[in-house]
Amino acid sequence: MKALILLAIGSAIVNNVVLSQFLGICPFLGVSKKTETAAGMGGAVIFVITVSSFVAALIYKFILTPTNTQYLKTIVFILVIAALVQFVEMFLKKSMPSLYQSLGVYLPLITTNCAVLGVALTNVTKEYNLLESVINGFATACGFFLAITIMAGIREKIEYNDIPKPFQGTAIVLIVACLMSIAFMGFSGMI
Amino acid sequence: MNILPVIIAAAIVGGVGIIIGFFLGFSSEKFKVEVDPREESILEILPGNNCGGCGYAGCSGLAAAIVKGEAPVNGCPVGGAAVGNKVGEIMGVAAEEGVRQAAFVKCGGTCEKAKQDYQYTGVEDCAALSFVPNGGAKSCSYGCLGFGNCVKSCPFDAIHIVDGIARVDKEACKACGKCVAACPKGLIELLPYDAEHIVQCSSKDMGKNVMKACTAGCIGCRLCEKNCAFDAVHVVDNIAYIDQSKCTKCGVCAQKCPKKIIV
User: Fold this and answer.
1) Domain with CATH 3.30.70.20 in chain B
2) Which of A67, A69, A90 is nearest residue B27 as measured by Cβ atoms?
3) Do B20 and A63 count as a contact with CB atoms less than 8 A apart?
4) B24/A86 CB distance under 8 A
5) pLDDT tens-digit profile of B218-234?
6) Does CATH place domain B196-263 in 3.30.70.20?
7) Is B211 part of the contact surface with chain A (CB cutoff 8 Å)?
8) For chain B, where are the alpha helices, taking DSSP H only?
9) Are the beta carbons of B262 and B196 closer than 8 angstroms?
10) B37-91 in CATH: which number?
11) What ipTM describes this predicted complex?
12) Which of A53, A152, B63, B112 could lock onto B43 through a cystine, CB 3.0 to 4.6 A?
């Protein structure tokens, strides 16, 4: 149990997927203008990563390993992720149209969010079992959620600041991302 | 060569694909969203440029608004009456007769007519130029700068720089209004397509100063105003303006104008 909690903290905060591993930067910068949409995106990513790491682990264990075709993992995982994103899209369109509208093009972009594939592949290379895979996936996605909502909060405040002209827009956002990354470096070595 | 691994690989990927396909097919039925069929058919009729000239975020936004009754059936300025009628058929209402509009550039200061105070060799952008002294190199601070921000903004290739000033191709213009917003001098106005008499100047300077700056400038002499029998022309702030709703296209103002800038 203790090992699992440590694993979760490790992948959520210490090895934060965005700020330490630099995966999933596209939605991190693209959808972090408003806290509400950022949280929505984070929620969608949590769902997709958790389920996809579960399904990917299942497929790896019960289909790819017995048939000795582990080399197919990348292509099969991409298939699974794409299908899950499609599913989430349908689900959101039906049940939360306003969130669906505000996520816009970034929702299909989860398909190409490298964090999702990254987690599935990390699970395999680190030889996590089914439970560990799901926890790792969920924790990593929580780390993404954390990073993107903090970013959105900061960006909402930045709107009111008097930023020198050359730094306005994307430039200041990238600087903020760097500072956040440096802050999260403080966690390294904790576990 | 052993063909077996190839077949196994194909079978596994194919099998996973088929399972996923069934799963998605099933859930697309389950999570089907009821879209008003009229919305889709309206969207097919709309031009699909997503220019935003209607005030909505793209054509799909307008289609949704028309179905909800928030926008008129001829809400698309690009499609004009033709599209409006088709949409009206779907919605079961007659389209109100919309007047076709086109953009007009209210400046006639071509290279030879308008004088230049100095040579400008900076960034070729109207918005940037409007910040330099006297709002650009032209002696007239109201005139067209000729660097074509309107040209860049036009999604229909209907506006071009000819002889130093912007000129609109009336046939190609869809009156989406992008150029109106793009011009830092506010020279472009949407007027009825069949408008024949337009004052080709926007200068609010005194007549004397206008004469110095440009040979095609309105000097505010009021000859047009006095000679118009229909109360359609008025001179306000040293510039004549023709009210197109009152204009009967008689052409008297154009004849009387000493500068021949009403065309």
Assistant:
1) 99-194, 196-263
2) A90
3) no
4) yes
5) 888 888 888 888 888 88
6) yes
7) no
8) 4-30, 37-45, 58-68, 80-91, 126-129, 149-153, 178-182, 207-213, 223-227, 252-256
9) no
10) 1.10.15.40
11) 0.70
12) B63
